[in-house]
Amino acid sequence: MLKSYIENIEKWREEFSFYVPIKVRFSDTDMYGHLNNTVPIVYFEQARIDFFNHLGLMEDWTDQDVNNIPVVADIQCDYLKQVYFNEPLKVYAKIAKIGSSSVDLHYLGVDHLEQICFTGRGTIVQINQNNGKSASWTEKQLEKLSGSKK
Amino acid sequence: MLKSYIENIEKWREEFSFYVPIKVRFSDTDMYGHLNNTVPIVYFEQARIDFFNHLGLMEDWTDQDVNNIPVVADIQCDYLKQVYFNEPLKVYAKIAKIGSSSVDLHYLGVDHLEQICFTGRGTIVQINQNNGKSASWTEKQLEKLSGSKK
Amino acid sequence: MLKSYIENIEKWREEFSFYVPIKVRFSDTDMYGHLNNTVPIVYFEQARIDFFNHLGLMEDWTDQDVNNIPVVADIQCDYLKQVYFNEPLKVYAKIAKIGSSSVDLHYLGVDHLEQICFTGRGTIVQINQNNGKSASWTEKQLEKLSGSKK
Amino acid sequence: MLKSYIENIEKWREEFSFYVPIKVRFSDTDMYGHLNNTVPIVYFEQARIDFFNHLGLMEDWTDQDVNNIPVVADIQCDYLKQVYFNEPLKVYAKIAKIGSSSVDLHYLGVDHLEQICFTGRGTIVQINQNNGKSASWTEKQLEKLSGSKK
Prior knowledge:
Distance between the termini of chain A: 26 Å
Number of strands of chain A: 5
Shape of chain A: globular
Oligomer: homotetramer
Order of helices and strands of chain A: HEHEEEEH
CATH superfamily of chain A: Hotdog Thioesterase
CATH class of chain A: Alpha Beta
Number of domains of chain A: 1
CATH topology of chain A: Thiol Ester Dehydrase, Chain A
Radius of gyration of chain A: 16 Å
Strand order of the largest sheet of chain A: 1-3-4-5-2
């Protein structure tokens, strides 16, 4: 069952290199005994922020003079395999497309057997908190973003 | 900016009638001062479960003899307006499409001025916990599901 | 089993009047099928903030000129009765003791039969974000705090 | 400011050896810019479960024939130092006292400079899900529990 944002699953998967190790917290489960469906979105956020940090972008978003922050415009997640308490996961993030003030990220969550548990995507927009409007990437930011793109 | 799952926003919006009132918890916010982006997914879950309960479906999913449960196959959320602590929201849910063992739900979150804060959609599949496979809707379940569809 | 912060349970209980209605979210449960033990602490926070808001104190903590915020110094919770999904709870808060820059709150969570599910207490300290030190209550704040005390 | 459950802070601290590394998630923060006060309770749970797992106790609580589970009777947490996003923490757990069907655990959270951020304690009771009553430790369980005690 191929998702609209995945053309070729093997190729798509190969393009990931950055990931964060995630351990499923007990409080991440729900009464159906598995990982609650809302939690992979939390993992995506964790992977995204660590990824941005890795690219050197987080410093742009804590500079109070500039006052720009990244905002989630949309997110989606496809659940392929149930996940249980204590499972060690890897959650990957990669850049799929760079816009003028936005970036599309793709996500991949795998278990310890490298089986896909969930996939996802979402657009992040840089906005300026002073006026609430989108703020175009600077040259330097584009370099950071492009550098990571294969 | 029309989402792929919304053809006509006025018509789409009119088809909602069921909603749950939601109050943004303090711990739902994050260090950017607004509602954390992972939380509307929690609100969708709340709206969905209350909606299923309203349709009389939850009793099918707590019957330990049958052992069927609803599982989230995918979810997506579009964030249109920032939400802040203490805002009273209404989160609507409606049925968009009924499959043989699945159902597509759409979601709409509005603030106290009836302004759209976020929209979303997702597919729920009924699976049987004994064999892990999808379980077709029974006649009775289809009645419950159809009854709610305009 | 009387808790150290409760001398006389009937008297203690009578002193509560302010409460917030809480509905247990599905994602508040865990794989043991009941309310996860970390969540009543979230409910305490909700009750506390609504209580402070009710007393007119929240406006003091969003005034960016003064830059004071309330900080949780400690919290404790005693779990007396398991809580399940969808249960409508009332979570009460009251002031137990007022210090020079702090206040002790007590908490009580009951189910729809008015049975006690959990109790708790904790100290809140007002600190100034500019210097990180505790900030004494002003006359006006003391009035607001005392007004609520029976 | 010594807590009631800590007689001598140096001695108390030395008795810990088991810990879990914790990374503060972005969604663990709140609009005051720091770790939300409800989250250390989540970290305690994580430390506790990993600790029980380390002691070999978790297998007793997933055996569906016996149907015993550990239940949190009470928890408390003292917050000594604000924690911020992305900080790497260590959260320690140790056994403080063993009862007939319960065990008291103490907790310690430190930052990367080994500075204390929060401390805590709480009682866990083993209950039987069939009758809802407390279930005494078996000989084997007591061995597991004692083995860890210095």
